[in-house]
UniProtKB/TrEMBL annotation, chain A:
Keyword Oxidoreductase: yes
Protein species of origin: Planosporangium mesophilum
Domain Acyl-CoA oxidase/dehydrogenase middle span(s) in chain numbering: 122-216
Cofactor dependence: FAD
Family: Belongs to the acyl-CoA dehydrogenase family.
Domain Acyl-CoA dehydrogenase/oxidase N-terminal as annotated: residue spans: 6-118
Sequence ranges assigned to domain Acyl-CoA dehydrogenase/oxidase C-terminal in this UniProt record: 228-376
Protein name: Acyl-CoA dehydrogenase
Gene3D superfamilies assigned to the protein according to its UniProt record, in alphabetical order: Acyl-CoA dehydrogenase/oxidase, N-terminal domain, Butyryl-CoA Dehydrogenase, subunit A, domain 2, Butyryl-CoA Dehydrogenase, subunit A, domain 3
Keyword 4Fe-4S: no
Automatic annotation (TrEMBL), chain B:
Keywords of the record: Electron transport, Transport
Coiled-coil regions, chain positions: none
Recorded GO CC terms: cytosol
Record-annotated Electron transfer flavoprotein alpha/beta-subunit N-terminal domain positions: 23-212
Region feature Disordered, mapped onto this chain: 221-244
SMART domains registered for this protein in UniProt: ETF
Subunit structure: Heterodimer of an alpha and a beta subunit.
Stated name of the protein: Electron transfer flavoprotein subunit beta
InterPro entries found in the cross-reference section: ET-Flavoprotein_bsu_CS, ETF_a/b_N, ETF_b, ETF_beta_N, Rossmann-like_a/b/a_fold
Name of the coding gene: fixA
CDD domains, A to Z: ETF_beta
Length: 382, 259
């Protein structure tokens, strides 16, 4: 077993790190304060090829493996989870789903623009009354001739107000997950209104929105995958998507480690750097172990995906551990910083606020535990 | 138009750099080796000329085998191919000998335009473009902050302390550039993957027809006799403001030519 990066993987990681150090970190605090990243970052991500990772080059993608994807997502997570989230959702959940399930026409229509950063996608599964219980979603599409007419509300949709296309999961049949289909809805379709949700604890630079579908008419050619297969498309997207969240969490933890180590060596108390106190070293050691353990879990999933092996349970484990580890790491880093960690002049407070949502979205920690438990025992405890 | 870009691998100027205690050469073993920063501007300039006028961009590097990493990084920005002159006999070469080797390599490439950074962050002698041009018998347009290509006519704005000079020459020519000339692009993910497959030719001194006795320590026209660590930084001048603090500050800034 060789855990060393190939020359190309190392070069990709350096590129992502360099980009983050120059184009993201210097602005992250300001974007957080004003509740919006500079959306010009999307085109830059496209130019680097970061929005087309793993997508075939014939559709404008960058090619490459999931391992490289995870390396890039870790660096973006270290820089700003709001930027990482743009990529996780637009590429990880939407572009990849179109590449996997789309017709050739759908791929040609959306993939080149999404990969170039000329368009963004959003993933509309969650509703005001259905989060973890996604299979009970209530947004409906009624058949009308060759068209479908969609009505309902989607909640907490990342990229919602910025997106050009919504991958929407709606009920076309009866109760349960077999009655759900997926549609690609351009956001300029009449009847679709979007409202940005403000006041978030973290991910403040990211546009999170409520989407209201009021008699939104789309042709049957907008359906992604077979009717009734929408839920399995969503679950398959999320299984890989969780890996990208986990990779972003490794970045948060690494950022916390970097910040804590550097601050502990500079900050003097009782006439010595605080790094010279054992209790401070304990905090730092805990962050370091959490970071490395999370990274190794993420690397294992990326390797399984690249080798075409089953990965769902390992992905759940990586997401569960990395998200909880990121919260712990940020909490420990804030403790190292003391009062200065509590103001946004230093990055650790933002790391903590951004990390907090990762144990909630794309499967809460409790849902991850239930999925892991079900895989191990064969018994559904939902 | 065929453009050759000179790319040098140097120790990262942002980190601790040392000379070797045994032979007074740059210690590459302990350093983080990167592309000389100014050379990235040269690559960018070559690529933007290629985008406007077509042609081919070739990276040329002289350096030890480890320089391959920097060559691949240069290729990931977009150039078509690279030539790496590597030969154990080159260790210890002075600037004059280096120019002989680079000129011989350029001579085999039939270049219309040679672009390089105005200086390297390790040697900082700024003589390479002049020496190469002299050896090749072509023009040297040095210290450019702007380069315009119009057919076979090259025009640069040469950056000076007071402003700039407009200098023109015909191809073939050597142009050296400062970091004011452009904003180098990032490599792209595709560029990194493609760089692996781009032609990288390694040439020895024998391939270039240069005798080993003309380079390295044997052929060096200058010798580093000894070196010592830079002394630690001294405390700066303190200006105590007793009414004329502002005047003293301006006098200091003026004497250092900051204002």
């Amino acid at each position: 077993m060789d855990l060393a990066l190939s020359q190309e993987q190392a070069a990709v990681r350096r590129l992502a790190a360099d980009f983050v150090d120059r184009e993201v970190m210097p602005y992250a605090a300001e974007w957080d304060r004003r509740e919006s990243v500079d959306t010009g970052i999307v085109k830059k991500l496209g130019d680097l090829g970061f929005l087309g990772l793993t997508i075939p080059e014939e559709y404008g993608g960058s090619g490459g493996d999931h391992f490289s994807y995870c390396l890039v997502l870790e660096e973006l997570g270290r820089g700003d989870s709001s930027v990482r989230g743009i990529v996780s959702v637009s590429l990880g959940l939407v572009t990849k789903s179109i590449a996997a399930y789309g017709t050739d026409e759908q791929k040609r229509e959306w993939l080149p623009r999404l990969c170039a950063g000329e368009a963004l996608g959003c993933f509309a599964l969650t509703e005001p009354d259905t989060g973890s219980d996604a299979a009970s979603l209530r947004t409906r599409a009624e058949r009308d001739g060759d068209d479908w007419v969609i009505s309902g509300t989607k909640m907490f949709i990342t990229n919602g107000t910025w997106a050009d296309v919504v991958l929407a999961f709606v009920r076309t049949g009866g109760e349960g997950h077999r009655g759900i289909s997926a549609f690609l809805v351009p956001t300029d379709t009449p009847g679709l209104t979007r409202r940005e949700i403000h006041g978030k604890l973290g991910l403040r630079g990211q546009a999170t929105a409520e989407l209201v579908f009021d008699q939104v008419r789309v042709p049957d050619s907008a359906r992604l995958g077979a009717a009734g297969k929408g839920f399995s498309i969503a679950m398959s997207a999320l299984a890989k998507g969780r890996t990208s969240v986990a990779a972003g969490c490794v970045g948060i933890a690494q950022g916390c480690l970097n910040a804590a180590v550097s601050y502990a060596r500079e900050r003097q108390q009782f006439g010595k750097p605080i790094a010279s106190y054992q209790l401070v070293q304990q905090l730092i050691a805990n962050i370091a172990v959490d970071t490395d353990a999370a990274r190794l879990l993420v690397w294992r999933v990326a390797d399984l995906i690249d080798r075409g092996e089953p990965f769902a349970n390992e992905s759940n484990m990586a997401k569960l551990f990395a998200s909880e580890a990121a919260v712990r790491a940020a909490n420990n880093a804030l403790q190292v910083f003391g009062g200065y960690g509590y103001i946004d002049e230093y990055p650790v407070g933002k790391y903590l606020r951004d990390a907090r949502v990762t144990t909630l979205y794309e499967g809460t920690s409790q849902i991850q535990q239930l999925l892991i438990g079900r895989a191990l025992t064969g018994v559904n405890a939902f | 138009m065929k453009i050759v870009v000179l790319v040098k691998q140097v120790p990262d100027s942002g980190a601790e750099r040392n000379l070797r205690s045994d032979d007074n050469t740059v210690d590459r073993g302990s350093a983080n080796n990167v592309i000389n920063e100014m050379d990235e501007y040269a690559i960018e300039e070559a690529l933007s000329i290629q985008e406007k006028h077509g042609g081919e961009v070739v990276v040329l590097t002289m350096g030890p085998s480890g320089a391959t990493e920097s060559i691949r990084k240069a290729l990931s920005m977009g150039p078509d191919s690279a030539v790496h002159v590597a030969d154990d006999a080159l260790h210890g070469s002075c600037a004059v000998a280096t120019s002989k080797v680079l000129a011989a390599a350029i001579g085999q490439l039939d270049a219309d335009l040679i672009i390089c950074g105005a200086e390297s962050t390790d040697g900082r002698v700024q003589v390479m473009p002049h020496m190469i041009a002299e050896r090749l018998g072509i023009a040297a347009l040095t210290g450019a902050r702007k380069l315009t290509v119009d057919g076979s006519t090259l025009t640069i704005e040469r950056q000076t302390e007071e402003g700039y000079e407009v200098v023109t020459a015909s191809t073939p020519a050597v142009v050296s550039v400062w970091d004011t000339i452009n904003e180098p692009r990032y490599p792209s993910f595709k560029g990194i993957m493609a760089a692996k497959k781009k032609p990288l030719e390694t040439k020895s001194l024998a391939d270039l027809g240069v005798d080993a006795s003309e380079v390295g320590f044997d052929g060096a026209t200058s010798t580093v006799v000894e070196h010592s660590k830079r002394p630690p930084r001294q405390a700066g001048n303190k200006v105590a403001d007793s009414g004329d603090g502002g005047v003293q500050l301006v006098q200091y800034l003026s004497s250092e030519k900051f204002v």
